[in-house]
């Protein structure tokens, strides 16, 4: 995979925020060295967040997000400001741009309060330095304030360096599964190729699992469900771990002898991305579901829904069968995730492989703050099949 192929979920997300006409988009263009955002003298030109994946030194692969103005007016404006707030939850580093001639007002300060509350590192940038009296531009309230001029380019290099210093430490030791195995172990990955599988390639969790196994100096054997029995009998020593796609959990559980550790891609991802134990606990909420209860089924990516899609078809059918009830299912995908979850009995999320860790944690926190049980596809399927305990076991030993 080349640089440009770094998955969006693994890139550093840098959000640019500010009032209309503070020169936010011009600063984005100066920082990135290319015309990425729409720039004009008309207030409020950026109508939707603009996402752009790129390579930015000294940071490496990043996603730059240019957002609508914080002070947007009218109905459409309110909708855009809502989108801006959603962007905050995807942001690893925030750049708040204010017009140096006006200083930071209520909108900027409100935003900074939200950033502090969410523990998102930020820089306050005063733009239009070239239009301000020189005495004005020496006022500094702290570390994270910079004066720049998008028009002359002054301060842009310093801004990039400052963003670089705020980079969160990547090396926090989190691994998808490398810490569960030893070098030269064998791991069997069970990957069903059905009509939902992309043509000619593997999906991201499968690619990442293979990569993690290789990095550990271990061996991955990839097969479909039908070949699993044969593969297990061929291997001289039993595999250290069998990892399966959740949709074939039950079959794989039956084929894999009890002494061989078994888990699923979604259980590994729940551990890697957010809060495995919150999800395991959340699955138990199924026991209390009644007719008419609303269940939110939320998907992180916006891929084209196949018929028989797991989230919209298979999962609801399994839940109706398991509970014997008729709950109401509400579906969201991509960046849509309601801030108010109070009407829902529970939330079932996908594995979140296309979301950043910050976005996934934000969603988990939103549910926890409102005491709404939240789980994910794989964990609830394992729970309904009575094998959640088995799939959690390799992670607790």
UniProtKB/TrEMBL annotation:
Keywords: GTP-binding, Nucleotide-binding. This is [FeFe] hydrogenase H-cluster maturation GTPase HydF. It comes from Candidatus Lachnoclostridium stercoravium. The keyword GTP-binding applies. InterPro entries: FeFe-hyd_GTPase_HydF (IPR023873), GTP-bd (IPR006073), HydF_dimer (IPR041606), HydF_tetramer (IPR040644), P-loop_NTPase (IPR027417), Small_GTP-bd (IPR005225). One of its GO terms (biological process) is tRNA methylation. The gene is hydF. Residues 279-394 form the Hydrogen maturase F tetramerization domain. Residues 176-274 form the Hydrogen maturase F dimerization domain. NCBIfam families: GTP_HydF, small_GTP. GO terms for molecular function: GTP binding.
């Amino acid at each position: 995979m080349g640089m440009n192929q770094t998955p969006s979920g693994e890139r550093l997300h840098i959000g640019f925020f500010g009032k209309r006409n503070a020169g936010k988009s011009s600063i984005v263009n100066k920082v990135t060295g290319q015309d990425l955002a729409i720039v004009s003298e008309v207030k409020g030109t950026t109508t939707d967040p603009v996402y752009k994946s790129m390579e930015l030194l000294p940071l490496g692969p990043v996603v730059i997000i240019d957002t609508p103005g914080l002070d947007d007016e009218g109905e459409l404006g309110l909708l855009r400001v809502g989108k801006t707030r959603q962007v905050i939850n995807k942001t690893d580093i925030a750049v708040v741009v204010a017009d140096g001639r006006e200083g930071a007002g209520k909108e900027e300060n409100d935003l900074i309060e939200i950033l502090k509350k969410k523990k998102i590192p930020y820089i306050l940038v005063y733009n239009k330095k070239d239009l301000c009296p020189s005495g004005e531009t020496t006022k500094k309230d702290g570390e994270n304030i910079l004066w720049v001029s998008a028009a002359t380019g002054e301060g842009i290099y310093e801004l990039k360096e400052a963003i670089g210093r705020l980079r969160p430490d990547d090396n926090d030791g989190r691994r998808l599964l490398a810490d569960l195995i030893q070098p030269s172990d064998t791991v069997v990955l069970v990957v069903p190729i059905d009509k939902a599988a992309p043509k000619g390639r593997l999906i991201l969790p499968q690619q990442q699992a293979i990569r993690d196994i290789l990095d550990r100096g271990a061996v991955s054997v990839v097969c479909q469900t039908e070949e699993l029995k044969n593969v297990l009998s061929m291997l001289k020593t039993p595999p250290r771990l069998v990892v399966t796609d959740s949709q074939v959990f039950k079959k794989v559980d039956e084929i894999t002898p009890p002494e061989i550790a078994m888990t699923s891609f979604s259980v590994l991802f729940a551990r890697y991305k957010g809060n495995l134990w919150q999800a395991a606990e959340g699955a138990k909420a199924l026991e209390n579901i009644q007719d008419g209860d609303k269940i939110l089924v939320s998907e992180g990516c916006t891929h084209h829904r196949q018929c028989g899609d797991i989230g919209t078809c298979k999962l609801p059918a399994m839940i109706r069968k398991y509970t014997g009830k008729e709950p109401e299912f509400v579906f969201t995908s991509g960046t849509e995730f309601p801030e108010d979850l109070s009407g829902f009995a529970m939330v079932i999320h996908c594995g979140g492989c296309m979301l950043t860790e910050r976005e996934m944690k934000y969603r988990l926190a939103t549910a926890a703050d409102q005491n709404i049980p939240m789980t994910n596809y794989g964990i609830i399927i394992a729970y309904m099949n009575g094998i959640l305990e088995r799939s959690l076991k390799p992670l607790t030993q």
